[in-house]
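Researcher: Here's my situation. A collaborator sent me these components and asked whether they could plausibly form a single complex. I don't have experimental data yet, so a predicted model of the whole assembly would be a useful starting point for our discussion.
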Amino acid sequence: MRAYKPKDNVQAKAYYTDRFYVAPQVPKTSVDEDEVFAADLEAIKAKFEVKDAYIQVEQMVIYINAHDIYGVLELMRDELAYTQLSEMSAIDWLAKDDTFEIFYQMLSMTKRKRIRVKYFIKNGEAVDSVEKLFRSADWSEREMFDMFGIEANNHPFMKRILMPYDWEGYPLLKTYPLEGDEFAAWYEVDKIYGKEARDIIGPELRDTARVDRYDSERFARLGHEVPKGTKITGDEPAVTQSYQEEGGVFLIKKLDKESSVVIDDPQR
Amino acid sequence: MAQVKNRLTPFFENITFDRDDNELILNFGPQHPSAHGQLRLMLHLQQEQIVKAHPDIGYLHRGMEKMAENMIYNEFMPTTDRMDYIASSSNNYGFALAVEKLIGLEVPRRAKVIRMLLLEINRLMSHLFWLATTALDIGAMTVFLFAFREREYLMDIIEGYCGARLTHAAIRIGGVPLDLQDGFLHQLRVFLNKLPQNIKDYEDLLDSNRIWLMRMEEVGVISTEMALSWGCTGPMLRASGVAWDIRKEEPYELYDEVEFDVPFSDKGDNFARYRIYMEEMRQSAKILYQCIEMYEKCEKDGQTDLMAHAPKYISAPKIDIMTQNYSLMQHFVLVTQGMRPPVGEVYVPTESPKGELGFYINSQGGPYPYRLKLRAPSFWHTGILTDLLPGHYIPDVVSIIGTTNIVFGEVDR
Amino acid sequence: MAQHKVNYTQDGGLPIALTSVDKIVNWGRSNSLWALTYGLACCGIEMMASGASRFDFDRYGTIFRASPRQADVMIVAGTLTKKHAEFIKRLYDQMTEPRWVISMGSCANTGGMFNTYATVQGCDRIIPVDLYLPGCAPRPETLQYGVMLLQKKIRANKAGNAQKAKRLM
């Protein structure tokens, strides 16, 4: 019987998992342990609803409501001195509860602190663009759209950034296989030569371990090379490779290996 | 000769001849010798002046984040090499540090010193390469040849250590795989003793060169607000008046033990960035001298450990694997199935030669990361071209792209 | 003007040399292989290194040209992505015949380590390739050796005969 493969997550799976293995947690600590973070959290809590907040690996993580994001980042930038948006992107939880988790990685250079602001959106919802606050979000949001298909409202140029404009599918979704779907497999052939060339060019060879021993067009035994298209029997005579023909090359001196010097220490 | 038939339409659609406003749309790239890779720029021109720039990236997008989700942690290490391929070890290090923070590992001191040596050598290599290519783009061929010569010496040293010139994979999660080879310190010292004279040579050629100054001074001025808003880091940010170096402000490894200065400028133009790169090379040399001393002290104190001791995550030393049954079993599990870090997430920034290189890892307790986001500095340094180029002239495009020091393995990932 | 004393009787010093058209054309073609700067990724850096001071590609008559119209050999140095695939075809079509292609590095050969949705699995799906260089990234010495092998391949051609255009399909 064929093994069942879940369709909602086609990424690599561990092939062995101990049933009784409980993965440990990266320790989370209370925000009160850090004065700067505690003050920042108070300032945010005064205006917006904060669902959860903790410190993990020296950085504060706060969960907010999706519609508050513009306000929270504006407050953080203007009043709390978090002047840089280092990074933002999404995490795909569609298989679990049909949501995306969006995170914004903030940096304050005066306080030397980093905060990660997070929220969840449902599949198909759009996020509010923060491009007006941080120009860096312009490209991040485009990348997020490109990779996950999450659109940003009020974004000036919501188009793909990394993949071609005519690409189909969102590569970082868990439902998208690493090797790509059929559209991806034939993309360049379809675009350049047309669909009818598929048969002539043939499918992609994705098996990295595949070597056809008798393929004399691509492979020949090292030191026993044969002309292209020759049938390989296995007892080819050894050929010594030299880049110059035996008779010598017109007007070019032949390298004398005896008289060449190898320098030991290049810096001398 | 008959050409192979294809479906591609003639490529004139990007040049519009019949417009009323005299605006010319110029396509630059994606394969342009001075674009430092596969950058495509759509430039809207009024005469020679750019009124709108539209950078188009993604021509080197290979899907590294997707690969990370399908690879065990150690498997992903060589892939990080191909991000910023000018300074591979800094990517290796950023990833290794992120995973170490995730599982809470402490790396032995000797490994830390070796890592710092590698990182600073990589910084020197990257800056030398930057100088060479930028100078070549602007027309200073001699500097290109000089800087590549020095870079080759460093490559020899690195090659002696890890066997590769470009894609090092020289740092492992939990330490470094090898001790320094014989002659590493000697070769490095010889190089470092020569380096000040070399840097002076470049500066003699460039600093008072009229062409260089005219192409560099007051071209591509990035204000502090713009740099912060666009997420600029590293030399780009420091040239715009913010003295922010992660090595200094949020020290990792042993950077709090070494003494070095952070050069910065408030000019924000190409020339300021050039000066910062030159000064950073001197500071790297200073750090390297101190690292050599630290390494020799480690040797004297008999600290020989190169990998952290954490049997759940890191394989035992080879001698143990070959003699101890349990170590062999652990090693087998770690190689075939991979380590399983705890559930949680981490964002770790490091100062790569280009800027802040961050790794965001979300682990769900499995052998594969659930989500890995690479925060590559060049991505935003390319984005800033949108706002930076308008108002400049066509020749300035080349010098501005040069000084932003973008590497497309990193931009597109 | 300076007067140079040339010993015409020494080998290579004769002012007249008799040869066949094949040989002289192939000599010219193989010793001025102008390469298109086609650095796509990491291999492009090694390609630059082989053109720089230590490895000095000019010794072989290989000078990098920025325009495909002036180039004889296209060195595909680096990962070819699906987004870029269209442009390699365009540039190849712009090169004048005779033209050769060196595929440098695993990524250009087979897709290499990037077995992903975005990478073309070998640039020979788009254009015909003459020489594959293994390595990730190949050393500059490998590239130089590859160019020397290509020179050998060119010399083996009959230059007098019209060359058949290489076709992928």
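Model: Some features of this prediction you could bring to your collaborator: Residues 216 and 230 of chain A are 6 Å apart (CA to CA). The beta strands of chain A are 28-29, 50-56, 59-64, 84-93, 99-108, 113-122, 127-128, 152-153.
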